[in-house]
Amino acid sequence: MTNAIDLGHAVVSKDQWLEARKTLLLKEKEFTRQRDELSRQRRELPWEKVEKSYVFSGPNGEETLAELFDGRSQLIVYHFMLGPGWAEGCKSCSFLADHFDATVVHLAQRDVTLVVASRAPLSEIEAFKKRMGWRFKWVSSYGGDFNFDYQASFAKEARVDGKAYYNYGLTEFPSEEVPGLSVFYKEPQSNDVFHTYSAYARGLDILVGVYNFLDHAPKGRDEDSLPFTMEWVRHHDRYEEHPKAAAGCCHAEEIHA
User: Do both 100 and 174 map to the same domain?
Assistant: First the structure.
C-alpha cells in the first residue's frame, strides 16, 4: 500500500482495496460465528427462580413483576439511571433509550416485552419521559427492593470501603444508580418467574445502535481523546448545531470498563 495521506491511511488501487477488504471479511465472519456461539452459551445459563414479590407503579397503576410481561413469556427490563429527586435522567441511559420506541413493536413479535424501570417516583419519571418524547413503558420501583436486588441501585450502607457491588465485582462508583439490563422468563402454566440474565457496564454496548453505526465509520466512535467514553453524549434535546465535547454524564468511566 502506498501514497499515505494526511489522515494516516494509504490510498490504493481497487484490486488492492478488495484484497484488503476480503482479508478483513474473513475476520468479521469469524467474529460473527464467535458472537453466535456466545449468544448460545448465554441462553444455556441456569435460571434462578424469583421468590420475592416486586410491585411497580406505572401508567396502568400498580403491577407486579409477573404482570409486566403483558401476556408474553419473556421480559427485558432496562434499569434506567433516574433516582428519586433527580432533575433529569442520565445522559447515557437516555442515549440508549432513544433506541427503544422503534424496538418495542418488533420484540413483541418474538414474545418479548421491553420495560424500563427506575427508582424515581412515577411523577418524576413521567415528567422526564414527556420532555424526551418517549412512548415506551417506564415504571417506578420507588420504595421497593427491585433495583437494589438486581444491582442497579446501591444503598449507602451496602458500600464496602467506598466500593459497591456492580458488574459482579466491587467497583468504585460515584452514583447511587447504575445502568443495567435484567431478563426474565415466565412459565405459562405456573406463572413462576425466573431470572435468566443480567448485564452491566460494556455488556450494554451492543444495545446502542448509534455505536454500531459509528463502528463502521472511518473515525469510529472517536472517543479515545475524551476523559471517558460517552462524554460527548447529551440528551437529544440539548445537542448544539455545531458539536463539541459534551459535559460528562452522571456516571464515570468505570461503567464502560
Answer: yes
Residues 184 and 58 in one domain: yes
**Cell for 21?**
477488504
**What's the rounded Cα separation, in Å, for the pair 234 and 27?**
34
Joined grid coordinates for residue 84:
428519586
Do residues 70 and 168 share a domain?
yes
CA pair distance 27, 96, nearest whole angstrom:
28
Say if residue 50's pLDDT is above 70. yes
Same domain, 22 and 67: no
Q: What is the DSSP letter of 217?
A: S
Give CA–CA dist 125/88, Å, rounded.
9
Alpha-carbon gap, residue 8 to 223, rounded angstroms: 18
One domain for residues 64 and 189: yes
| Sequence-separated (6 or more) residues with CB below 8 Å from residue 29 | none
Model confidence over 31-48: pLDDT tens digits?
Answer: 999 999 999 999 999 999
The cell 420495560 sits on which residue?
115
Q: 72 and 27 in one domain?
A: no
Whether the Cβ atoms of residue 210 and residue 95 lie closer than 8 Å to each other: yes
CB atoms near residue 93 (< 10 Å): 25
Residue 157 reports pLDDT greater than 80: no
32 and 109 housed in the same domain? no
Nearest alpha carbon to residue 138 among 113, 175, 166: 113
SS3 255: helix
Segment 68-104, tens digit of pLDDT: 999 999 999 999 999 999 999 999 999 999 999 999 9
Question: Do 27 and 108 fall within a single domain?
Answer: no
